[in-house]
Design goal:
The chain is α/β, with parallel strands linked by helices. It folds into two domains: 150 residues, P-loop containing nucleotide triphosphate hydrolases (Rossmann fold, 3-Layer(aba) Sandwich), CATH 3.40.50.300; 70 residues, no CATH class. The chain contains ten helices and eleven strands. It comes from Gloeobacter morelensis MG652769.
């Protein structure tokens, strides 16, 4: 079935799109935050890696700004999409040097003035400029996550991809990091895709959610449309209590449903 003109116009504005062989469409617009949610093993991280072309799908395509992203374009995709890394190698480099190496990428050349400005800008925007002279590898918690954000910003991406960035952070650090990302999304008009295990954080910060099970989308839409008791019970096997609060929709697990 042909897409409607309104849908085609929306897709034309989306910097990141994915279509698979089963005719599943995913698109993220500038200034929009899409949360990938589901039970453990639902395929959330795998879908993120497919978007980044770190994994090759059996069928389907990923497009960035309308251009087909091939599996061999890993470095280019990671830069253009602002893929947030999951760890740091023990290189003995400082925070500033780590960002400088990431900026240079595969060029392996000395940084010019524009590159240095980009490094300083990214560290400042992510809030880790005061840590520039500290070793990067020992950083923990919020400081490490903010460094990861800075690394993703080095090439002025249009898309940010994050895999559960709030893991191992306390409540204050979680809110501070997600608010930082929300500010980037708004001011830089970034399209953001994030894996969330915390449904309430996803509901608070994301405009749209995609609920996955066994690697396939079950439901997509606004948090109010996706975080319904029947859908969550079907996918999670848990009874949820849903509550509208002054801070948005919240859901609470009540009991495990019998097999």
């Amino acid at each position: 079935m042909a897409e409607s003109p309104q849908v085609m116009e929306t897709l034309a504005q989306a910097p990141l799109q994915m279509t698979d062989s089963a005719n599943v469409h995913l698109h993220v617009l500038p200034g929009e935050w899409l949360g990938l949610i589901g039970a453990s093993g639902a395929g959330k991280s795998t879908m993120l890696r497919l978007l980044a072309r770190l994994l090759a799908p059996f069928g389907g395509v990923v497009r960035l700004d309308g251009r087909l992203v091939q599996a061999g374009d890993t470095l280019e995709a990671a830069q253009a999409m602002g893929l947030i890394p999951c760890g740091l190698a023990a290189t003995g480099l400082t925070v500033w040097e780590t960002a400088a190496v990431a900026r240079a990428g595969s060029r392996g050349c000395r940084l010019g003035s524009e590159d240095r400005q980009a490094v300083n800008w990214a560290l400042e925007r992510a809030g880790v400029a005061p840590l520039a002279d500290r070793l990067a590898e020992p950083l923990l918690g919020a400081a490490r996550q903010r460094l990861f954000v800075a690394l993703a910003l080095l090439h002025s991406p249009r898309v940010l991809l994050l895999d559960d960035p709030t893991i191992a952070l306390d409540a204050r650090e979680q809110l501070a990091l997600l608010q930082l990302l929300a500010d980037f999304k708004r001011t830089e008009q970034l399209a953001v895709v994030t894996v969330f295990d915390d449904l309430n954080l996803a509901a608070r910060f994301c405009e749209r959610l995609l609920l996955l099970r066994d690697g396939r989308p079950v439901a997509g839409g606004t948090p109010a449309q996706v975080l319904t008791a029947p859908l969550l019970e079907q996918v999670m096997g848990v009874e949820f209590y849903r509550l509208e609060t002054p801070f948005g929709l919240q859901v609470f697990p009540v009991r495990i449903l019998s097999e």
